[in-house]
Amino acid sequence: MARPRNDEELKNKTQARRIRQDKLAARNYRLAASLPLFLLLMMTIGFFVRTQPIFAQSSIWQLLSGTVWKPSQGQFGLLTFINGTLWVTVLALLLAVPPCILTSLYLVEYAKRRSLGAILPAIDLLAGIPSVVYGVWGLLVIVPAVPKISSFLSSWLGRISLFAATNPTGYSVAAGGIVLAVMISPVIISISIEVLRAIPEGLRHASFALGATRWQTVRRVVVPRALPGIIAAVVMGLSRAFGETLAVMMVVGNTPQIPHSIFDAAYPLTALIANNYGEMMSVPLYDSALMGAALLLLVIVLIFNLGAALVLVRANRRAKV
Amino acid sequence: MRTHSILFNLTLLAGLILSACGGQADSPSGAEEVTLSTSGAFALYPLMQRFAEEYRAVHPEVSFDITAGGAGKGISDVLAGATDFGMVSRELKSEETERGAAGFAVARDAVFVVVSADNPYIQQIVARGLTTEALNKLYITQEFTTWGDMLGDPSISDPVNVYTRSDSAGAAEMIAKFYGGTAQEDLHGIGVDGDPGLLQAVLNDPLGIGYNNLGFVYDFTAGTPLAGAVVAPIDINANGEIEEHEFLETRTEAVEAILSGDYPSPPARLLYVVTNGVPSGATLEFLRWMLGEGQAFVNEAGYVLLTDEELAAQLAKLP
């Protein structure tokens, strides 16, 4: 190629190259960015196609409302498993969210910088522990402790069926919920801390300057401003709770029944899939039913995430006013 | 800095090349190095490890990767091509053979009903035994809920805490058939993951009842059930008392009872190594070894040998 004759030509050439590079990069990044969406779509379609044989045999409603799980007799009721997933997840959130938010508020608003620096690495470490370790801890510590909690609670609140001590073994929704609550706490805390730290210091100073106490500042200035972020943190925890399989499976009792008390055993969808994929090859329609369970889990997570997104949008709007 | 890292990489590369050469020189026949992967039944896991150990002594070029995860995982993995062998502790189903699963029995064992040694009624359990009818009503129809029901003593009102396997397991299917059911899904109770998990649950719960494979409930070196566990005698002839041969206090007694047929089948059963389609190459070699020289270690590992006819039938299946 001939050397460019003057500066002008060189400049044009470089400029053209830079524009070309820029366009190429944009195209590549767009492709990369659309990959997750594409994957989600492919997975959904894949599950849907694999689920077809079971729909040919029984209606969606039969599957969703059925409570009998006898694959060798062709009965694939998923209601007990949907209940299992919801019970364990909701209990975990109820146990985890209030202390997590208070923890992050304390660490950011009240504690000294130094203690935040000491505690943050510990929280990150907790988030990195493999779930089987939480499961073993649950088996050794939580499961034996649950009967004690249940006899204590039921002596006070036994008349409410939610706290009835129905199951003396300790393998229960409560055990699953406690283990799960501990597992999702680091996620919720560390995201909440990031959110709270992102709030401009000036807002707090303005509030203090008006004579507000620290608590008033937190309640009236910091929390309303941080609310959308905190909701996002809770949703991250929720997604983890829905998906967590192994640790929950080890302590929840895996009994296909609709729980009536938090001390009943339950059987979440994730555990169903993990426990039974071994039967997939052996029983007709089984693989199709399990794919149906996977699709259902995907849909449940999607619904919760969409719901959370809506709340987030509304909270954002309110925070701006 | 830069020269350092280049030097380091070169050293690493040289090391790799040298070690690769070393590896080649080590294998005496110059045979290719292979890894045989296996997954599946807890019942076969200890025997398979023994087989692998002994086989490696004569064939150092073969390495093994063995995991336990229940019979269902074994069959799924091998049919999906994820492993070379699946360990299956129940009969193969027609759906599985249709998909190409080929099973070769390598040994025999049984599933035993296990209770905690701390059970307050352990004396009565050992003296009177449990009947399959009572176990059926406990596990399958759920008519029985207390130890009083199980022992025919209405004054006992302590509940039985029923445990079963949550992962798809050969042991569960065998015990379901023993109790008069057909499949694992017929068993009610708290589902616990894995054979060791189920044993632990019963050990922790004086009122619990579960079931375990021969190789897990009896301690290998001592030959007696693991500390805290009792193999509940089954009153097989239903005469209301437990005779000497019905109470299996040691592994040797258990093995004899399986061999003589005093302990019924199910829950005694053949243990299968399963391949996907007709085995060949290193897979076939190892399979032939398991059914030949390997049989010498079956007894030592605490399992029950196949009969001569059974063994001949397995060998006839080899290509």
Describe what you observe in this structure.
With 321 residues, chain A is mainly α. Chain A has one domain: MetI-like fold (Orthogonal Bundle). Helices cover 76% and strands 1% of the residues of chain A. Chain A contains 11 helices and 2 strands. Chain A has helices spanning 7-57, 60-65, 79-110, 113-128, 131-157, 173-197, 201-209, 214-243, 246-251, 269-276, 286-320, and strands at 69-70, 75-76. A two-stranded antiparallel ribbon of chain A has the order 1-2. Chain A is flat and about 85 Å long. Chain B folds into 2 domains: 33-108 and 269-317, Periplasmic binding protein-like II (D-Maltodextrin-Binding Protein, domain 2, 3-Layer(aba) Sandwich); 110-267, 3-Layer(aba) Sandwich (D-Maltodextrin-Binding Protein, domain 2). Chain B has 13 helices and 9 strands. In chain B, strands 1, 2, 3, 4, 5, 6, 7, 8 and 9 form a 9-stranded mixed β-sheet that branches. The model of chain B is unreliable at 1-29 (pLDDT under 50). Helix content of chain B is 39%, strand content 19%. With 319 residues, chain B is α/β, with parallel strands linked by helices. Chain B has helices at residues 2-26, 45-58, 71-79, 94-98, 122-128, 132-139, 147-151, 170-178, 195-203, 214-217, 251-260, 281-291, 308-317; strands at 34-40, 62-68, 85-88, 101-116, 161-165, 190-192, 208-213, 229-231, 268-276. Chains A and B meet through β1, α5 and α10 of A and α3, β6 and α9 of B.
